[in-house]
Amino acid sequence: MAESTEHREGGCLCGSVRYRVDGAPKWAAHCHCTSCRRATGAPFVTYAGFATAALAFTAGQPAAHASSPGVTRRFCPHCGTPLTYESARWPDEVHILVGTLDDPESVTPQGHVYTSEQLAWVHLDDDLPTFGTTAGGA
Asked: In sequence order, what are the beta bridge partners of 112?
C-alpha cells in the first residue's frame, strides 16, 4: 500500500511556532466542553485528530500546560495561540486546532461532541450528528 503524501501546515498568530502534519485526519469534530471553551476563549472549538507521529514542529517550539490530569495543551509561548490537545485517553493521537491550519477548509468536521456542556445560546443547524460526550462514547 502506498503511503499518503497528504500533508497540512499551520501555526500560531505571530508565526513563531509552525507545524506540519502528515496524512489524512482520523476524524474532525466541534468540541463544546467547558475545558476547551476556557482554553480557547471560544464558544466551541474544532479539532482534527492525527497520529501523534504525524506531527512535526517546523519552527519554534510550543509551550505545554497540563490543564487537567492526563491532558496536555500546547500553545505558542509568545502570542498564546492554542495549537494542540493531547490526552492519556487517546495516547497515540494529537488533536490539532483546525483554526490554526493554513487551510482550515481542508478539514471537514463530522459532528459535535460534548454537547451536554454546550452553551444555551449556541444553536446548531448544520445537520451534523451530536454526542453528549465523545463520538466513541469515551
From this structure: 30, 130
Q: In angstroms, rounded to a whole number, what is the distance separating the alpha carbons of residues 103 and 25?
A: 14
Angstrom distance (rounded) from CA 60 to CA 18: 7
In a domain, 133, yes or no: no
User: Does a structural domain hold residue 76?
Assistant: yes
CA nearest neighbour of 107 among 16, 17, 23, 18: 23
Q: Closest by alpha carbon to 21, among 9, 35, 5? A: 9
Give residue-wise pLDDT tens across range 48-84.
Answer: 999 999 999 999 999 999 999 999 999 999 999 999 9
All residues at 6 or more sequence positions from 102 whose CB lies less than 8 Å from its CB, including other chains: 8, 9, 10, 11
CA torsion angle 47 51 18 41 (round to 10): 20
pTM: 0.91
Number of separate domains in the chain: 1
Q: What are phi and psi of 100, to 5 degrees?
A: -90, -5
